[in-house]
Amino acid sequence: MKKITHIVNSLNPSGAEKMLLRLLSAYKAKETTSFQIIVLSSNFDQSFLLEFKKIVEDIHVIPSKSMLMKIFHVKKIIKSVRPDLIQTWMYEADVIGGIAGILTKTKVIWNVRSIRPANHSLLYLQIIGILSWIIPHKIISNSKRAIAFKKKNFYNIDKFVYIPNGYDFDSITSSNSILDKSHMDITFGNVSRFDKTKGLNFLFEAIAELQKNNIFPHFKFFGKGMTTENTELVQMIAQHGMLTKNIEFNGFIKSTDVIFNSFDVLCQSSVTESFPNVIIEGAMYGKIILSTKTGDLETILKNTNYLCETHSAYQISSLIKKILKTDNNLLVNISKNNIKLSKSYNIDKIATEYYELYSNII
Prior knowledge:
This protein is α/β, with parallel strands linked by helices. The protein has two domains: about 1-165 and about 345-360, Rossmann fold (3-Layer(aba) Sandwich); about 170-345, Rossmann fold (3-Layer(aba) Sandwich). About 40% of the residues lie in helices and about 15% in strands. The protein has 14 helices and 13 strands. A seven-stranded parallel β-sheet has the order 3-2-1-4-5-6-7, with helices on both faces. Strands 10-9-8-11-12-13 form a six-stranded parallel β-sheet, sandwiched between helices. Strand 1 (about 1-10), helix 1 and strand 2 form a beta-alpha-beta unit. Helix 1 crosses helix 14, helix 3 (about 65-80) crosses helix 4 and helix 7 packs across helix 12.
């Protein structure tokens, strides 16, 4: 039986972790392959851990905060499990899992999940880029734009394999339609955790500017930290002078059906992403998409939706006004095209690409 060990920074319900869960759930040859997960932090959503335990019994959580101690613990687990392959997810896991792989003589695949690290310097990225010539056998990236950026920062470009994110279409129930809605009834939704990379300050500024012109669009916010109990969020709202009329802050909600069936237009303001999960999830539900041009979105959405530059409250507010004036028949056509587009990213197809790569290396 083949053994594959996945190493992740945490098990919070974010992009990489959700993709790993879908990948493991979609694997069809469980009788010939066993999986282990090593988590490099004990600070994560325990309810999400339970989702992984439904499909993977062998999960190891590393409590240490020291990188050296994490390497020690991961090496010890790898020597005990003796996997055929290590698959790492995100930068810290790439480094720690990669070094443990070298020390145990285990083959390693890295997985690039962003264009650049959100909480580290460019020098940090470049050091990992140099290590890419030594450690991994292959590097999976979910974004062609991320590959191009990594090439400029010393990564070994010959090791990259492009595999986009995959999604489970059988798990959703779509019930909201924009067909019969007036412009005053259109609701915008934002699905983001409270984080500086999500560009929420620009979105709040855009909404405040619309309100100054007596335009009060209906907005619903979802995601970890997106509640008025978050004092930093409340301060950001006040800083931009945004009123909360017609605006809801719902926090983290597990059900994508509940989230995406509650609004019509997905409005994302991220300043850095490679392949935002939420965009294709929104497309699956037939949402109109208003987003900043992060990652591969210009290529993925093919100018059929509403895209603007990052860091621009003015462009976001202009596109909101444009959508509110757009003929419903055009919005309905965009909705139908988005559903069709999203089917290119079926998780069964994407999982096959992952496991064919694993087989070639093992």
